[in-house]
Amino acid sequence: xxxxxxxxxxxxxxxxxxxxxxxxxxxxxxxxxxxxxxxxxxxxxxxxxxxxxxxxxxxxxxxxxxxxxxxxxxxxxxxxxxxxxxxxxxxxxxxxxxxxxxxxxxxxxxxxxxxxxxxxxxxxxxxxxxxxxxxxxxxxxxxxxxxxxxxxxxxxxxxxxxxxxxxxxxxxxxxxxxxxxxxxxxxxxxxxxxxxxxxxxxxxxxxxxxxxxxxxxxxxxxxxxxxxxxxxxxxxxxxxxxxxxxxxxxxxxxxxxxxxxxxxxxxxxxxxxxxxxxxxxxxxxxxxxxxxxxxx
Length: 296
Prior knowledge:
Blueprint: E1 3-11, E2 14-17, E3 20-24, E4 28-35, H1 41-49, E5 57-65, H2 70-81, E6 90-92, H3 109-128, E7 133-138, E8 141-143, H4 148-154, E9 159-162, E10 164-165, E11 173-174, H5 189-193, E12 200-203, E13 205-206, E14 209-213, H6 238-248, E15 253-256, E16 262-264, H7 274-289
Parallel strand pairs: 4-7, 5-6, 9-15, 10-16
Antiparallel strand pairs: 1-4, 1-5, 2-3, 7-14, 8-16, 9-14, 11-13, 12-15
Helix pairs in contact: 1-2
């Protein structure tokens, strides 16, 4: 049995700035995609809890398609933090894995369509509750900088992602995209990844940890639904649909590397098993230790 989990955190409070006596801090929906990540969740959720941003409420929790103990870990975490947030609404699906899946790590067409639908629903949920921002994040993206949200918000960009490091060259952005909408090598990639040049950079693709400013009018054109993208001719893939919706509506996708914001797991190949993901987590924890505090 497989499941995918979406967790929406709805956070807001107040803070004091020099230009005003007291203003409400922007509202943020945090939409978390979880699929068979029981081994990463303790670290991931601890880092989410440690983000230096006032907690207000957990808005929605929805799940389907997991074979591990992701649900149990989430429930335990929610029991401990429930009162720090406004509300918790859970929907756990017991559906079995998609019929066209061939294995644990297989991203089948049905799975892609399901994830696109869930992300689109999350985006519309945030719009409908008048959230100022939505952070789309996967449960294997570790935000080690507690000020990451404040840092990204301060950029005043419609779409912005923190550059996340991994074991090797993998990250959560592309510096170039091919004519058929897949990854292309670029001379700009490594200098951005390794912070040889610092700042915020326009790129053709961001994923896995994406902050969207819903107060910007142009954000209304962003979508994970290919049917809403004019003349969409790309593959069935949530990150490419989102990227093309931005491209076709003139919304820039940005990555920022002015700080070491966090780390990300390398995706599994189609024939990999869960044990290999455990090994990857061990390797990533060692990578984090090189220049940072350990994942806890």
